[in-house]
Amino acid sequence: MLHNEVERRRKNIIHEDFFEQEQRQVVTEDFETSLNAFLRDCKIRNLSEHTIKYYRNELLAFRAILEAQDLPTDPDKITLKIIKENVILYMMERQNLKESSINTRLRAIRAFFNFLDREAMITANPVKDLSLIKQKKEVIQTFSRDQVRAILRQPDQSTFTGFRDYTIMLLLLETGIRARELVDLTVSDILWEDSQIRIKGKGYKERLVPIQATMKRQLRKYMAVRGDDVPNDALFVTIDNKPLTKRRLQEAIKKYGRMANIKNVRCSPHTFRHTFAKMSVQNGANMFALQAVLGHASLEMVRHYVNLFSNDVFDSHKRFSPVEKLF
What we know:
With 327 residues, the chain is mainly alpha-helical.
């Protein structure tokens, strides 16, 4: 009798993942349903429209890569091996995408599968051990002072669009604002008494960026030309009084770059952002002030700017240059 009771005795240790195994009931869905669930969750978390659009576009591109190779698109059938060999290599070898573009897509893929894993919509998470690919540190292109002066001379300030574009380029140079942030500015974002502009950055993160007297005067002139009878609150509008789009902004700066005969630098709003960073560092801006104005989440990019553009590097090299000391 005692012998049988010993045989029936249960193990006294409960394995740590016992309840997880018992309670996790996976309900898999096709790609379309899974994507819609993910995007709905993004809306519930109040992510910006731009972020949601980014996720949608990148994940549809991800599915298109799988379909082009006749691979399964159901999320539960996608493995880490497929992502590495049929997605990453496909983007590298077939699409010739830059490392930054590949990592942009991989971030969306990781967010998607991590959501599906949390919601028990996949059996195993294929991105659990997925790392971004290593990116080469590229030399950052900036305008020279002469190029800045040249491109600022191009808009015809006797026209509304020319005066608007001149004001925009000054503001890009004054604040280092991103293209999307600029077209999202409203009239009420100019805090005249505080000499600041309220910028709605990535992920609805707002920051206040100072503007100085010259920029304030230019903005007041632009506001007088813009007028108050515009049927929307967008700061920068078209001749039809519609909000200026990011694409039209990019096209305008590209056009002025051609007119200024600037050939060795890409003429874009982001080049103005890099130029702002370069000139700020050269004028003595510290890393923390620069981080606050540019809206970077970490100091990594700011350190890159400082390392590239600080006068300290040039001055130090002048002192220790082997060739200079040789003769």
